[in-house]
């Protein structure tokens, strides 16, 4: 143990980091801090059952898995997740495979539903004696611009509680309270509506493919994504302002069969019981900087991205890794360089991902403007035909 470590380990009066939100970002941060000996308390508005079963994203990048594994947090993931290094684009009824792992250092995606990530991270944190308060309401942030910020909330049993913190980490999603606690004018917000909507469908159906399928059809995009051997996720591009009520199950399947169809092939889509239908509005949002005073934002609290390219959870995990390292460095040595550069380091990756997601959005959708649709199709044809374009895709899709 170094002298600094000894000195730091002796600080029994270290105030905890208050983490708001027990999603992938908040729980990764919590585990990394706990492993580094930094106390933290996690506040979560849902119940344990709710967060462990809520279906969301399902794809983790090589880099994020490596980071989790370095901290002993990927054992089950590495045992159970399928690895994917190729995807398929369907255009005019023809399939074109892009072997992105071969184009990018053998790096693959891991298919592992977000709720399983949450289950593993929460289990690891609680097993190590970590403190999570579930079902909290009315969380408020106080004195975030001072060195003594604190949180108050109403506990599950109805009592008002308070936590004096060293720092506050806001990992409570796009609609959470933490970002809203920053005074107006202190940060800059960037948002973009892509003018596209997806109907997102989850079904108890075995996958009809071993690779993610992106299909470009004259009636709009259709996607077949993977979750497990018994559950699959599909997406359909639908008109802006469409509603779930317009999409009875029979219409969903008919449209998926039509848009995913292959010419001269006996490929078939297997149907199953639909368990979730939601409209996803394709929106991007970034707040700059990602911190204010002693409040640091992570994941969707700081940025949202379209689901295209499956970057959201990966960005959240990266934020947690960077913030944990910065907090550890500061606590051990008093050096706040990592905290000062936190936002800049994270935003570099966030904007790279936003640019790539936008590039893909444009490529795989039908625009109401026919000229733009043809440009998107030309981009896809170039990707299929050109090694350099496929290389760009691979690097950004599974990396960087
Ligand atoms: C998903 O698994 O939901 C998914 C995968 C790839 C995408 C978008 C979504 O590009």
TrEMBL record:
It comes from the Bacteria. InterPro entries: FAD-bd, FAD/NAD-bd_sf, RIFMO-like. The keyword Ribonucleoprotein does not apply. GO terms for molecular function: FAD binding; oxidoreductase activity, acting on paired donors, with incorporation or reduction of molecular oxygen, NAD(P)H as one donor, and incorporation of one atom of oxygen. SUPFAM superfamilies: FAD-linked reductases, C-terminal domain, FAD/NAD(P)-binding domain. The keyword Cell membrane does not apply. Signal peptide: none annotated. NCBIfam families: PRK08243.1 (NF006091). This is p-hydroxybenzoate 3-monooxygenase. Keywords: FAD, Flavoprotein, Monooxygenase, Oxidoreductase. Residues 16-356 form the FAD-binding domain.
